[in-house]
Write a structure and sequence with these properties.
Length: 64
Amino acid sequence: MVRFMTRSLKIIIEESAEFLEKQLKNTRTAHQKERIQVLWWLKTGQVQQYSGQFLSSQSTIRQD
């Protein structure tokens, strides 16, 4: 059996939900759309956690 330990990561999303929604509508690539969609979900409280590849990009998130 393999067990993975997870750590909590505090994410501060500086963009407004409205800005993210506009960006989502204007985004063309699937990769960018996924990243913005997850930010929007987190910002609007629709999800509490996300375990996809999105969180591995340092250019998208910062740690405090």
